[in-house]
Design goal:
212 residues, L-fuculose-1-phosphate Aldolase, 7-stranded mixed β-sheet, 7 strands, aldehyde-lyase activity, metal-binding, Aldolase_II/adducin_N, Class II aldolase/adducin N-terminal domain-containing protein
Length: 212
């Protein structure tokens, strides 16, 4: 049973995402698994100022709406990722300034490991999903497939999706994803990345467990 306190917490986290500049106006969406149910930002809602009446409650197994609020058009990949990943409770689709610029670049980078935070938190390899219409089944399946064994994905000509065990982990991944893209763009393409050996050495920094 979803409580008012949980809805308020979800709204606060949505506003946090907006305050950080990860979403603007109606861009992006966010979800949170609570037991067998999922809170989702509603269709057409503005994540930075998400109100209670725009929070959808869905059954995870079927996607059935339980409170009469239509969920985001991207609910297909939110629910799909949560079904595939028992270790994940939060999914965040965002469109931050620099990462979205990279998603729209003709000659985009293929290696984002400009600082240690990227392989440690975002992922040493970031899969890319080709452009599909927002809200389409093809886009949903592309994101679900990419996040089966990764925690972050770049959507061409669209944005990004990250997932995490909780709000903090998903937020951290999104922020470091954006930081890496800012470094790449502001360097004018004249940047270096960590070597495979340097990435392997980071295992000790993250307690011997490599980030996917």
């Amino acid at each position: 049973m979803i409580t008012n306190e949980q809805i308020e917490q979800f709204i606060a986290q949505a506003h946090r995402v907006g305050d950080a500049g990860l979403t603007i106006c109606s861009s992006g969406n966010i979800s949170w698994r609570i037991g067998d149910e999922v809170l989702l930002s509603g269709t057409g809602s503005w994540v930075p100022s998400l109100p209670k009446e725009k929070v959808a409650v869905c059954r995870l197994s079927t996607g059935e709406v339980l409170n009469g609020v239509k969920p985001s058009m991207e609910s297909g990949f939110h629910l799909g990722v949560l079904r595939e990943r028992s270790d994940v409770n939060v999914v965040l689709h965002f469109q931050s300034h620099y990462a979205t610029a990279v998603a729209c670049m003709k000659n985009r980078p293929t290696n984002f490991n400009v600082t240690a935070e990227v392989p440690c938190h975002v992922g040493s390899e970031i899969p890319v999903v080709p452009y599909f219409r927002p809200g389409s089944k093809e886009l949903a399946q592309g994101v679900i497939d990419a996040l089966k064994d990764h925690n972050s994905v770049l959507l061409l000509k669209h944005g990004q999706v990250v997932c995490g065990k909780d709000f903090d982990q998903a937020f951290e991944r999104a922020m470091f994803f954006e930081m890496a893209c800012r470094i790449i763009i502001q360097s004018g393409g004249d940047y270096t990345v960590l070597t495979p050996e340097e990435i392997d050495d980071l295992e000790t920094y993250i307690l011997g467990k490599k980030t996917k």
